[in-house]
Amino acid sequence: MTATKTVSPPTKRPVRQLLAASVGNAVEWYDWYAYTFLATYIAAQVFPKSADNSLVPLLSTFAVFAVGFFMRPVGGLLMGAVADRHGRRAALTVTILLMGGSSLLVGLTPTYAAVGVLAPVILVLARLLQGLSVGGEFAASTTFLVESAGPGRRGLFSSFQYVSTTVGQLVASGIATLLVDTLNDGQMNGWGWRVPFVLGAVLSLVGFWIRQGAQETRSAEQQEGPRPGLFEALRRHPRESLLIGGITAGGTIAYYTWTSYLPTYAELNAGIEKSDALLAGTISLAFFALLQPLGGLLSDRFGRRPLLLFFGLGFALLAVPLLHTLSDSFAVLLLVQCAGMVLLTGFTSISAAVNAEIFPPRVRAAGIGFPYSLTVALFGGTAPYVGTLFKELGHAGLFPWYVAVLCLVSSVVYLRLPETAHAPLRR
Questions:
Q1: Predicted model pTM
Q2: Which of 59, 198, 343, 368 has its CA 20 to 30 A from that of 310?
Q3: Which CATH class, in words, describes the domain spanning 14-215?
Q4: SS3 content of the chain, % helix, strand, coil (to 5)
Q5: So what does this one do (predicted)?
Q6: Of 270, 402, 411, which is closest to residue 336 (Cα–Cα)?
Q7: pLDDT tens-digit map of 240-257
């Protein structure tokens, strides 16, 4: 008898399952993205100033942002193994507590003026822990969401991965905008930038409490069978691991460029005011969140591949003209961001479903977590640093081409990807 006949997805409590995954995920990503939106203030307080170049502290801050990403593959592997061995809910509990503690550490990081080089050391440690948590969160929550879906609803449930991610990012952006508009520069540099991180630690406890009521989605056969090895997914499924990387490369560079780096990019290259850049980012993120369920529903009906190609080819053709259109106009920035969000939905709304449909259930969480997080670290986590470095080197115009080429590469993978939308999920 197969697992498909003995196990059914937990569709009796779909709203509760979505809430458990989504609320915790939103808190995780709120903590993660608060760093991005407040990068310029962190740079001024935690890193030494350079008399020769004002971009040096900002480059250092984005370098730490990238360092955090390189812990994500470790988190995806370790927490994915926890999810495959001990259950999805156990892994989700560990990741949110880890994120709460690391967020508090960022909020309490002393300034460079107070403790010298110890300040950036503490910040790096906090970001490493956050990277470990976020990598594990994606692996566990992706698997949990898709396994919780009923027949013909995997795309819809998948879309809530980025609904909740965007809500967390939206809250972080909104709080950053509120603080910038309310406090003066002295207050922001003194204590204002710390507030979102302390708040994130408190919200993590709320997410932890909600997740205690989640229903485990790992089948009885998996729970009773032998536990998978730490590297079993990579050893037995190398093709699937490479496929995850190809699917993700274009999506992650486009995602982090449009949802995280674009306000800073517009400040550096188009001269737009900081408060206007943050406000445009907040509005476009709200629009983006509303699009996700629509993308998931469309994929359940018409398939995953058409949406992926809409994203990949769209960005390959339009990334350069869109980024070159930016000026110091708030309206132009908002239009560029919203146009990118429409294209990006073709990837984000269904990436969780596509990833989960590739791997068998025994190693699904670890199988997704490591190659996905490694690809994000290589291309998504470095996007702000690469963009700022191009500016520093006097070649800011190369960055849009970098985005377009990676999206074109992923489009080739999408063309060869088998359609999995209407096939039963392996259990």
A1: 0.82
A2: 368
A3: mainly alpha
A4: 80, 0, 20
A5: May be a proton symporter involved in the uptake of osmolytes such as proline and glycine betaine.
A6: 270
A7: 999 999 999 999 999 988
